[in-house]
């Protein structure tokens, strides 16, 4: 099977078009706290919205403040200009910027009487029995609305089948990341991020087959031997593999990441209690470490980053933060002492969605790599 689709990072509507041609619905998803298993179990294709390749966002700029991050404005631009042909959007209150993307998309759509589906769930910012109970109620309300929208009925069997598919994806991505955890990986950070972004372009069954085909052929790939430093990239939502290419062109090799469009959503499989499937979903999405929006997971995220540095032999961490990013704006202050304790330096770079400062990034990355070499 040809798996080259995995490396095409531009936004594609091909799979969505094929899905909708079968008379099924496709919904955009903003933020990684929306359980995609629920959508698939109701025969709805979830498409995580991104802003890859957005160089101008006149519509997004018109509806959102210039103090909103360019990633959120880029997503809104693509929703409004037809880049995405979807039947609506489901989101959680992941961060304030993404929530404004949802609010404005909903307002414009309703004003135009498009009849699309818009729904926001509340995801607690703490974990515990009370918070999980609340989140389960939120998911039940979401399910009730999705059942009416899709004209389908959710069953435990459908939900378990959808969970099994997503868990298979998680295991396969973990195998992809294992290819990076060797002395001379056969996959670059740019390609690894492209593979993970492909999950937003494909239906889950197609994505599984593409991943299997890539992994079966991985032994035939040429190991990368000409890089000067093993790096980890962490920080704000990064949906542009070209950003990593700039770094790798200067001699770095990104062998690990802590990104919500990268490895983070795939790092752990979901454990399912057959007696409480919805509770299992709520627990998984509240407790998995994806971003520091939660109030009680900062130390766990820091530990996971430090542990990854040790496991992957990381020689330097690049902390990229989107301008005005509410979640990743100040995490470096907490993380830097832990990295210093294990002898790993950190480079902090601010960025926008459009890779307009590639030259500046290249200079700083090269200087950082040279410092590591000394």
Protein topology:
Elements: H1 14-21, E1 25-30, H2 36-41, E2 44-48, H3 58-63, H4 70-80, E3 88-92, H5 96-111, E4 117-121, H6 129-150, H7 156-178, H8 189-197, H9 204-217, E5 229-235, H10 241-249, E6 252-258, H11 277-287, H12 298-312, E7 316-322, H13 331-341, E8 346-351, H14 358-373
Parallel strand pairs: 1-2, 1-3, 3-4, 5-6, 5-7, 7-8
Helix pairs in contact: 4-5, 6-11, 7-9, 8-10, 10-14, 12-13
Instruction: Give start-end ranges of low-pLDDT stretches.
Output: none
What topology, given as strand order, has the largest sheet?
A: 2-1-3-4
The level-1 CATH class of the domain at 11-155: Alpha Beta
How many whole angstroms does the radius of gyration measure? 20 Å
Could you say what the CATH topology of the domain at 11-155 is called?
Rossmann fold
> End-to-end span in angstroms?
44 Å
Please state the average pLDDT score: 96
| Continuous helix count | 14
Topology order in helix (H) and strand (E) letters:
HEHEHHEHEHHHHEHEHHEHEH
| Largest sheet composition | 4 strands, parallel
* Number of extended strands: 8
CATH architecture of the domain at 11-155: 3-Layer(aba) Sandwich
Shape annotation: globular
Strand content is 5-15%
């Amino acid at each position: 099977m040809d798996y080259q689709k995995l490396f095409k990072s531009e936004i594609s509507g091909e799979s969505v078009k094929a899905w909708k041609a079968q008379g099924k619905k496709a919904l955009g998803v903003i933020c990684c706290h929306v359980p995609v298993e629920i959508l698939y179990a109701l025969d709805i294709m979830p498409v995580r919205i991104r802003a890859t390749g957005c160089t101008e966002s006149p519509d997004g700029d018109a509806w959102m403040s210039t103090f909103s991050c360019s990633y959120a404005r880029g997503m809104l631009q693509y929703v409004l200009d037809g880049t995405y042909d979807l039947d609506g959007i489901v989101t959680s209150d992941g961060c304030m910027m993404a929530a404004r993307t949802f609010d404005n998309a909903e307002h414009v759509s309703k004003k135009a009487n498009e009849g699309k589906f818009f729904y926001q769930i509340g995801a607690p910012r703490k974990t515990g029995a009370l918070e999980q109970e609340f989140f389960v109620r939120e998911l039940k309300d979401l399910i009730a609305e999705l059942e009416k929208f899709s004209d389908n009925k959710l069953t435990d069997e459908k939900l378990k089948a959808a969970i099994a598919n997503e868990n298979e994806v998680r295991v396969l991505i973990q195998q992809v990341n294992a290819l990076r955890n060797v002395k001379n990986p056969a996959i670059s950070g740019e390609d690894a991020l492209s593979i993970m972004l492909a999950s937003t372009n494909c239906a889950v069954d197609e994505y599984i087959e593409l991943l299997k085909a890539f992994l079966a052929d991985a032994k035939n790939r040429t190991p990368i031997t000409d890089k000067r430093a093993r790096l980890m990239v962490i920080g704000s939502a990064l949906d542009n593999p070209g950003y990593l290419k700039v770094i790798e062109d200067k001699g770095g090799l990104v062998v690990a990441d802590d990104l919500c469009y990268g490895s983070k959503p795939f790092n752990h499989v979901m454990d399912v209690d057959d007696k409480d499937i919805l509770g299992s979903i709520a627990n998984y999405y509240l407790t998995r470490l994806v971003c520091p929006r939660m109030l009680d997971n900062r130390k766990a995220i820091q530990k996971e980053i430090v542990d990854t540095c040790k496991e992957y032999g990381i020689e330097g961490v690049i902390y990229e933060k989107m301008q005005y990013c509410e979640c990743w704006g100040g995490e470096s202050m907490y993380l830097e002492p832990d990295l210093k304790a294990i002898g790993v330096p950190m480079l902090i770079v601010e960025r926008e969605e459009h890779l307009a400062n590639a030259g500046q990034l290249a200079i700083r990355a090269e200087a950082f790599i040279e410092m590591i070499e000394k």
